[in-house]
Design brief:
- By secondary structure, this protein is an alpha+beta fold.
- The chain has one domain: BirA Bifunctional Protein, domain 2 (2-Layer Sandwich).
- Helices cover 44% and strands 15% of the residues.
- The chain has a six-stranded antiparallel beta sheet.
- Helix 1 packs across helix 3, helix 3 packs across helix 6 and helix 4 runs antiparallel to helix 7.
- The longest helix has 27 residues.
């Protein structure tokens, strides 16, 4: 089987490594294997993040910057004190720093590839803007979601229990109004191993399906 962009080995290595890490999430297990993680997973994943930043910037017409999340967990305020994240996760955000600008997500965990898209967190004036957007453009937003085959994710902060004022409790898009983030699951490219151009091309195609929705968010939100 051909590997046009060379990332097949990285994905396979990541799935095996994180499956073992999930069962042995300790410093004593990780430290002897740290060099393997850095060389076989982190370095090629950083390269993938950089390449996809260029591809997504070209495709969306927006300047996007990549971020590969650290394997080390911040356990200061968590009851779960396991020290490492047993998954690979990267994100691409717009370089201008607008908190309501949509972002793109990619993750790998044992037996699983996740793609996501949307607005991570909304607060204060940004949340007010979002609710006004849903009130005015909710029908079109739902149409764009349906056309792209997207489903809402539970990533991000918990939604409100009630529709916020001044919107009526029976608002047709009440579920959307309750949200403090707007993140969608993007169907992953199941054929990425055999896809012409490899993983990069497959991811570009998968994220391309969200561009009509992305344009709506950028122009109206």
């Amino acid at each position: 089987m051909s590997e046009p962009d060379g990332f097949t080995q990285m994905i396979d290595s990541a799935e095996r490594f994180f499956a073992e890490l999930a069962q042995n999430n300790t410093r004593d297990w990780f430290e002897p294997r740290k060099d393997h993680y850095v060389e076989e997973i982190r370095k090629p994943a950083t390269f993938l993040a950089d390449i996809m930043a260029e591809e997504l910037s070209r495709q969306s017409g927006q300047a996007l910057k990549p971020k590969l999340f650290r394997i080390y967990r911040d356990v200061r305020f968590s009851k779960d004190k396991t020290p490492y994240n047993a998954h690979l996760h990267m994100i691409w955000t717009e370089a201008d720093g607008d908190p309501l600008a949509p972002a793109y997500f990619f993750g790998v965990a044992p037996g699983k590839m996740d793609l996501g898209f949307g607005v991570i967190r909304m607060e204060g004036a940004g949340l007010t803007r979002y609710r006004a957007f849903v009130d005015a453009w909710g029908d079109l937003l739902c149409d764009r979601m349906s056309e792209a085959g997207l489903s809402l994710s539970d990533w991000g902060p918990d939604p409100l229990k009630r529709v916020p004022k001044p919107y009526p409790a029976d608002h047709p898009h009440g579920d959307l109004l309750k949200r403090k983030s707007l993140i969608f699951h993007v169907p992953p490219p199941l054929d990425w191993r055999s896809h012409p151009g490899g993983l990069v091309s497959a991811l570009r195609g998968a994220f391309g399906t969200v561009e009509p929705l992305a344009e709506l968010l950028r122009s109206r939100l």
